[in-house]
Amino acid sequence: MKKLLVLGAGTAGTMVTNKLVHYLDSDEWKITIVDQEETHYYQPGFLFIPFGIYGENDVIKPKRDFVPPGVEMIVSTIERIEPEKNRVRIAKDNRYLNYDFLIIATGTNIDPSETPGLLGHEWRKSIYDFYTYEGAKALAKRLRTWKGGHLVLNIAEMPIKCPVAPLEFIFLADWYFHLQGIRDRVDLTLVTPLSGAFTKPRAADMLGNILEEKGIRVIPDFNIERVDPEQKQIISYIEQKVPYDLLVTIPVNMGAEVVEQSGLGDELNYVPVDKHTFLSTQFDNIFALGDAASLPTSKAGSVAHFAAEVFTENFLRYIDGLEMIHAFDGHANCYIESGFGKGILIDFNYDVEPLPGKFPLPGIGPFSLLQESEMNHWGKMMFRWMYWNILLKGKEMPITAQMSMAGKWN
Amino acid sequence: MTAREIAGKVVDFDDEGFLSNPDDWNEEIAKVLAGEVGIDSLTDRHWKVIEFCRADFQARGEPPTLRRITKTGGVPTKELYSLFPKGPAKKVARIAGLGKPTGCI
Ligand SMILES: Cc1cc2nc3c(=O)[nH]c(=O)nc-3n(C[C@H](O)[C@H](O)[C@H](O)COP(=O)(O)OP(=O)(O)OC[C@H]3O[C@@H](n4cnc5c(N)ncnc54)[C@H](O)[C@@H]3O)c2cc1C
Predict the structure, then answer these.
(1) Is residue A33 part of a domain?
(2) What's the pLDDT tens digit per position in A193-208?
(3) Quick check: B67 and A267 CB within 8 A?
């Protein structure tokens, strides 16, 4: 029996397991997937929790519901990858799991301890995150009784997963405080290490304009060094200070510690891989998928989905000793919730920045690229259903893995 | 792309003033480029960072991020900001003759 071991049963690990199980003969292959948690979180839903739009039932389901029959699932912390010995040590019963092929899909998470002053007596009193389920819930509770003041949203360092989520948060905050009737008592400021609203120029301009229209201030090129929770200020490396009443932080995002401890990570614990095939640059039987991989594209569920498709085709060739001919292009497709029932859609890859146009059908849509529309908002809301029912289960989506230029204009 | 004379050599620059070809670089060019971004003299500490970035670029094909310079190159972030005020990662890349860091996506 050949052994395929998948580390992490999040978006990427679950999807790729569901795809591969169809192709790998169960008489020849044993597939095992390991994760430390029983619960699968729909992370894009965390965005809506602070504003009372989503609750627990929208974002939580048991992981086991999505692990296909015939695949062994082990719930345990992964402690060490030993690539020289082709094995992985897990905490449960101190077991070793041997593998012929390994897929690392352990994702990325926030690490507030990287920024002095975040974790302390003001954490979840005047300082919140929404990138975790607990953080989003705590913030929801706070916002329900908040009387207004200066809300600062700070991105500590790039890259972060879903780089549009902070913008969506602040758009929704604008809308939410309008509904509460206190928008005139709230100052909203986005403090970012980027030079503008987003990483890519055309989208940054467009999103920058929307921020301005909504009266949201942007402080660019701000690299946070520390927080002074007493004075309620964030302070940059060049001693620029921004005061707040309520700080919503996107702390430094880091790959799993086990990746670092196993000597497989870069400076942010991401696994260096070939950007077209996801093959580790160090070991020829290790791949990394999803947020765990060090790739020059956004860390997003949609990217993991397109990546899993390309990977599956390649992997089936690779195990037969054939060349991996399919090349991942970095395709990302993100709905950006912009408040008041509207949204924006962006579609891009390694080489092509987000452009205006229609998607997925050229000229028809129904979604508009790089433009606000109500339809795009419904796209975002539908995404949750698609995630649970189509994406995770590894079913086909009516969108090609490779980005298409059809329907886009310059 | 535009060619201009710098430290007695004619070399190509991209639209944002980064050297187009890292192989055109030499230490004299670095000094002039540093002056252009407001750094009048390059100290040993500056050179340590520049040399790390050049070597890292050779090995990996892209200019290092700030975190990489700190963690792998061993120069604290705060010091990087005093050596190369405002965007240090961008400034070093420019002085070291590397392309503009893509850094974030
Ligand atoms: C607020 C927010 C909004 C977002 N919005 C969007 C969006 O609109 N669209 C979009 O496409 N994407 C969005 N994303 C991003 C998306 O959720 C992630 O990119 C996606 O989940 C990545 O999948 P993954 O499998 O790589 O990582 P994950 O889904 O995070 O899975 C990693 C798994 O590894 C496990 N693991 C890690 N370390 C260990 C260990 N040592 N031992 C055992 N198990 C371990 C974890 O428990 C986890 O289950 C958003 C994310 C956030 C936080």
Answers:
(1) yes
(2) 998 888 788 899 999 9
(3) yes
Superfamily of domain B2-95: DsrC protein, N-terminal domain (3.30.1420.10)
Contact between A246 and A151 under an 8 Å Cβ cutoff? The reply is yes
pLDDT digits (tens, 9 = 90+) for B57-101: 998 888 999 999 999 999 999 999 999 988 898 899 999 999 887
ipTM at complex level: 0.84
Chain A residues touching B65 at Cβ < 8 A? 267
- Domain containing residue A34: CATH number: 3.50.50.60
Burial of A226 (0-12, 13-18, 19+ CB in 10 A): middle
Residues forming a β-bridge with A348 = A332
**Could you tell me if A121 and A168 lie in one domain?**
yes
Q: Are residues A216 and A120 in the same domain?
A: yes
How far, in Å, from the CA of A164 to the mean position of ligand 1?
15
User: Of the candidates A210, A234, A253, which is a domain's last residue?
Assistant: A253
Nearest residue on chain A to B76, judged by CA atoms? A237
Question: Per-residue pLDDT for A91 more than 70?
Answer: yes
Same domain? For A157 and A72 the reply is no
- DSSP structure string for A245-284: SEEEEEPPEEE-HHHHHTT---TTSPEEB-TTT-BBSS-T
pTM above 0.80? yes
Identify all chain A residues contacting B38, using CB atoms and an 8 Å cutoff.
Answer: none
Interchain proximity A194–B104, CB inside 8 Å: yes
Cα–Cα distance for residue pair A237/A218, rounded to 1 Å: 18
Q: Is the pLDDT score of A299 beyond 60?
A: yes
